[in-house]
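dumping the sequnces here before i forget
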Amino acid sequence: MKTKKFVTLCVLSLFFLVGLKSGLCQEKLTADQIMQKVDTRIIPQDMTVMMKMDLISKKGNVRSRAMKTHRMSDDKQIMWFLEPADVKGSSFLRLSHDDRDDDMWLYLPAFGKVRRIASHAKKGNFMGSDFTYEDLGDRKLKDYSYKLLKEETIGSKACWVVESIPKPDITTDYAKIISWVWKDDYQAVKEEFYDKKGNLKKVMNVDLQRVDKYWVPSKITMEDLKSKHKTALIFDQVKVDTGLDDDIFSTSYMTRIY
Amino acid sequence: MIKKTASFILNHPKLIILLSIVLTIILASGIRNIRIEEDITEMIPKDLPSRQILNELEENFGGSDVVLVTIANERQTIFNRQTLAKIKSLSESIEALPGITRITSLTTAKLIEGKEWGLEITPFMEEVPQNQDEIDLLKQNLFKDSTYIGKIVSADGKYASIIAVVQEDADAFQLYKEMKTLKSKMEGPEHIYLTGLPVITTIVSNSIRTDIKRLIPFVMLVVLIILYLSFRTISGMLLPLVSVLMSVTSMVGLMGHLHKNFMVINNVMPAILIAVGSAYGIHVIAKYYEELGHSGNKKEALAATIKRVSTPVMMAGLTTMAGFISLITAPLPALVEFGAFLAFGVLLSLLFSLTVIPSFLVLLPVPKRTTQAAKQSLLDNVLGKLGSIVFRYRLQVIAVFILIVVVFAFGIFKVNMEMNPITFFSEESELWQADRVINQHLSGSINMNLLFTGDIESPEILQQMDQTQQFLERFPEVGSTISLATFVKKINRVLHNDDPAYEVIPESKEAVAQALLLYSMSGSPTDFEQFVDNSYENGQIIALLKNISTQRIAHITKEIERFCQEKLSGGVPVKKTGFSVFLKDLARLVITSQVMSIIISILLVFLIAWITYRSFRIGILATIPLLGAVIINFGLMGLFGIDLSIPTAVISSIIIGVGIDYSFHFISRYKFELDQYDIKYPVAKCIQTVGKPILYNALSVACGFLVLMISGFLPVRFIGFLVALAMIVCATGALTLLAAAISFIKTTRGEN
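..and the predicted 3d for all of it:
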């Protein structure tokens, strides 16, 4: 199985979300088969996207950041902050590895120098948002056992509702995750995350858009039901398979103002 | 007028009883609306600026109440696997409780660390350390960063705290219950202490409940005993009690109809009304039995009773009402309600005593009583002697009285103001134990919040916050301060190779924003929620103060206010709130309330006396024993270290309103003696005749108040003790000081 220890900024979730346009196999699939299909659906080689991150407080106040991001295959990503103006020119690079913690660098123009920052893998929050890297798809197929709960319609789309329970030896925030997966394209469009006490902790909703032959998210929201805090990731001007140069995913590229 | 009313009552007893029962039922039906006020901040007037700022604060930053859970391992410090595992498990359990917004603990607070290769921002203790090396590293990390020393770990390493922020709409009761369960599950060998406003609130409201259940039956019992001793008849025992219970249920019912909640001082209102109001019934019954002795005819005796007793009973009731009404001027809602509703209760019990009791007496047969032979008792002898002594040495009596008052007056300067609800409880209580630990080893439990408005990310405002924090930390009582500026400085230092010289606010706005961006890369979205709102327009400094006296807190708060106004560059308006500011404001309000209510009640009582006796001088004289009693009361408070607090602020109103009765008693009798007989020593005669009823009355009211000493609240116990004592002082004052002073009036009048 292909490892998916990869975190993309614009779309870690792409992994799950960009699907194989496989035939309409409405046959009786097992939960394992469904999740395997989700796991192996096709995703773009590279992607360039303008991403907006809205942090929404309990009272509904919004704090926004805008970034231009590139990602390549499933383990390299770089982004430049565009807004707010005070952080413009700051940049972030993340390289994922199968066998060790990810490498992350941050460049802050006001302080000069590119600095490495320590990552604590899955449990960390993705850029101070309500998403953890785990939520955004940094999950391995073999780490969970699956159960098909029911079938349900979301919007006009028929979905499987699959429960993922982490195997005992893996590090995770959750006791279980319930995913709603489109039957026809193997895209997860909604996920519920349950904490170790069995309470529903967070809910994620995904809106998808079609870019070339891929499904890519147009908006992902995550609400923390306890803190009532929300994050919305909004994806715009998505370009896929443009043949990005591998060189741009390097610390020397970070200091370039985009 | 009285005669007509009397004959109406005596001719329609059933109607009167029916009407009063209907009235009582209508009013009492409100009792089901009565709630125990759970929010202690409701004691603070809604229009107080600091309370409005608190609302604004909660609007911007969410609930500001915290529960502090402290884990103590005094023997070997918290740095061992077992205690650390307990801290982790307790942190997780508390965080998961409904009603908890977030927690700060070893498991959530983040270490910001510069490494040669870059930066690391991680919780101090994500997982429980597995070996001594990891434990040592944790210890080293914690004490390297001063931000959290005193907050989540004590400097000596023996205590660790979990600070749990509570949602505004959380069910404090449920939360406290769950925390108690957690505590009992996890305690041992480590101690676990719980405190914080939600905990205090729950304990206070539980105590209110217990108090109501305990005080009312006890006061009733005491009153019944007094009634039995006075009359030794069933009707004599029951009627005054029934009439006063009708007024108590009506009073509480009216509070319910008006949707007033029970706060710490309201819980003693029924007991006080029973103690004070039963006296009117006693008066009526005593007079009735006396008149029966004269005539033997029930109706005639009753008519005479009503005629004779109405005026004195109404005077006693009116003055008591005046005392309670004086509290209406108090700026504290709890005191206003206490005064207003008790005045209403007194009015009812006075009306019921004059109407319902005679109505019952008309219907009931004349009790068989062995008329006690008027034996010359020891007390009579003593009073007789007292009478002649007071008259002979009247100057000396006055001098001694003045001397006593002057001595006690010195105690007034030692009276301590205490507004912290924790002082409602004894020092052995669970709350105090927790508080002592937090005071001695951690930052403290009394918060002060300073709100800054503007561009919080701008270096200018952050610098002002920083200056303010530095000023605050100069006070030894300020345990810790924290704000966005704390983090910005910390990150700036780490970004400059951990050079302490860079632990300052960066000069450019970009640098600030980028420092915060760096933090947010590893932080969670709610990390700064309590320090700055999402728009970065409102920021706050949270300071923790040790639990010291309200007076010291008031002083520090004022100093800080002055600093913000005078020294802070840029003159940004800083709004202050938090528990410490409330304590300061409450202290001011209680003093104002106290002074106002003393002046107003004395004035009202004086006016009533002046009008009643149509003599300015007698009006003045009548109030003198009260002034003495009030001064002695405050003197005692100063000498015994009894705090002036919201509950104890009602004492002087009760003393003045009830204590005046003895002056009135004495003066009425004195005038009677003057008019009726041409006797040589009216004062001595008066002391001899009226002395006994005055002393009995004072003793029975005192006994009623002494019941308050079984309350769960210290201030309520003090009310019981001090009012009881003051009743005796007022009674003896009337029989000595007033008697001595009034004899001078006679002399001057005689000379004229």
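The longest strand of chain B covers residues 159-166.
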